Amino acid sequence: MGDFYEYSAPELVHILGKRFRDYRLRANMTQKDVADQTGLTITTIHKFESGMANNLSLGTFILLLKAVGSVDALDQLMPELPESPYLIRNKKQKAQRIRHKKQ
Predict the structure, then answer these.
(1) Within 13 Å and on the Cβ side, how many CA atoms surround 47?
(2) HEC string for the chain
């Protein structure tokens, strides 16, 4: 696909919508099947798949991923990071935040 930084947010939503449609079809589901499973409207699903859903919430996106059996993809989207040595204080206590010293 290339560098996603090259795309605007609406373009990325359009790409995700097209990919979701492919996942839905491979799961042998209709838009109505997804709507029934998620509680969303067919219109919402259609708008997302056609790239017209500019304000799709993260919660709605997660419902859609669950419907087609791809919610585990969230771990690839934002994997858990290992603990940072910069955030660990003495005796393994996590720092609340990093404060910079005044000069």
Answers:
(1) 14
(2) CCCHHHCCHHHHHHHHHHHHHHHHHHCCCCHHHHHHHHCCCHHHHHHHHCCCCCCCCHHHHHHHHHHCCCHHHHHHHCCCCCCCHHHECHHHCECCCCCCCCC
For domain 4-77, the CATH class is mainly alpha
Q: Which of 4, 5, 13 is nearest to 54 (CA)?
A: 13
Cα-based torsion angle of the residue sequence 55, 57, 62, 63 in order, rounded to the nearest 10 degrees: -90
d(CA 3, CA 96): 34
Its pTM stands at: 0.75
**Amino acid at site 35:** A
**Domain positions in the chain:** 4-77
Q: What is the pLDDT of residues 56-68, one digit of tens each?
A: 899 999 999 999 9
